[in-house]
Each structure stands twice: as structure tokens, then as C-alpha cells.
Amino acid sequence: MKKYLPVIVMVAGFLIPALYSCKDDETHNPPVINMIADSGTISDGDTVAVGYPVRFRISATAADGNITNLTIKKVADGKTKTMLDSGMNSEGFDQTFTFYQGVEPEAEWVVSVMDRNRQQASISFTIYKDPLSTFGGIREWSAIRLGYQGNQTLGHFFLPDPDKIYLEDSAGMFQDKVDFLVYFNYRDDNGIMKPSPTFSSPGEEPSCTGELYAEYYPFLCNWTTRNYTKYDIRAVNGVTAEMYDAAHNDSLLIVSYDDVWGKKKYKWAMPGTFIPFQTATGKKGIIRVIEADTTETGSILFSMKMQL
After folding, report:
1. In sequence order, what DSSP letters do the residues of 99-117 get, joined into one string?
2. Are 302 and 158 in contact (CB under 8 A)?
3. What are the φ/ψ torsions at residue 75 (nearest 5 degrees)?
């Protein structure tokens, strides 16, 4: 047997690299993604008026590995904006997404999924702004005062329609109308605890967990409707006092809110702050903070402009 040993070693020397090469060259099938036509959804090439919903339904199915990432990007005026970047671990999904038409004349929307093998699949569609779009009217409030969680005199909840401020009992009777609430605490800001007047909404957390529900307004967990208002948390959003005072249609409201920065609450809402927002029904607006107490028994005073 000894005289055959070099031959065996030589053959093995060829086979082992070949096996590794096959493994390295192994290919995986990418996930499958489709845009589904549905009632109320848009199609490639549609024209949408400024401020109106861009609603589309996406179906994605994994192939050789679970889907781990979903991104939705909008390409307009030579710039790419990531509208959604979501991690997951799923065999697939069928979901409807809603955004709102901006002022750009034309935008390409690109929806992409990636699986655990880093295989990707994408679809794209183009939406045009309706050239006959006109800016709409707005509602204006010069002074709204809400109490923080420890204030038992002033209401904590603001209902733009029917223009009411309510405490717990009355707010619970009109849950679908409650878009704004406030509370106060201290928040860490780069290692420093700072007083934080905070704007939020009943739908801050879909799971009804966190300090809003555990400490401040626990009765919200009994509500059957919890509206979710998103606040643009950028430190610099371009809104000035002069621009705000001059705004009597919704043009400034539309261009000031950036959905990428729309989050569940706005912290450190101190006097002089301008906060673009979007309600659960898609109405955009801007809050201007006038006064803000720094104790949980205090209150916050603000003006507001919002789309009709």
C-alpha cells in the first residue's frame, strides 16, 4: 500500500480545493417581491395631488433564506431619501404602506428586500405630482395650554376636531379624536439630565408599554383607539418665526415635515421650538412652543397650525 500513498495524497490535494471552490460558488435564489393592485392603492405612472396619500401594497416571499431587511427609498431631484429601513426575520409579508405626496414634480419609489444570504430583490415605480395641485387651507390656534401628568386642573389631551382640551374621563369618550398629549420628565442628553417637556400621543407604543402607560397615563391601555402622531425630531428643520407667522396655507406645513425623522415623541420641547408633525390621519402641522414649565405639575403653552 505504501507505493500508492503519494497518489492518494495527490488526488486528495485536488479534491479538497475543488470542494471548497464549489462551496464558495454556491448560489442562492433571491426573494420574490411584487406590487399588488388593490383598492385605494397607486400604480406606476400615477399622478397624485400634493399632500394626498401615496398608498401601495407590497408582497414579498423568501426563497433560500428568511427576509431580514426591507427598505423604501424615494429618488427625486437627483437625491435619494430613505423613507423606511426595517429589520425583520420573516418568510414573507404582504403589507400596505402609506406615505404622502410631496412638492417634487416626479419621484421614483424603490422598494427592496434582502435575505439572510444577502440576496436582494427590488421593484420601482414612478409617481408624478398633479400639476393642478393647489395648497390647501389650515387651522390656526394661537394659544393652547395643556397640563403635564401631575397637573390635576388642566387637561392633558388636545383634540383638534372638535377643538377641545380634556382630562381623562372626557378624553376617553372621544378616543378617535385625541391626537396630542403632553408629559414631563428628565431626559439624558449626552450624559446630562435635562428637563424635558414632551409631546406625544396615545399611540406612542403599540404594545402599550413604557413610562407613558406605566407611570403617567395608565388608563390609555384600556382605550380601544390610540391615535399615533409622529413628530419631526430634527434639531434644525428650517422653520423660522417669520415663516411660521406668514404661513396661512399648508405649503410650509408640507415641506417642513420630513417623514424620515417622524418619531413617536418630541423631547426637550422648550420655548422657541418649532415642531413639524403628522397625525394618524395624515394631516401635517407645526407646533410653536411659547412657554414650558419644568415640573410635572406644570403646563406647556403652544400655538399650532394644521391642515384642514
Report:
1. EE--S-SEEEEEEEEEETT
2. no
3. -110, 115
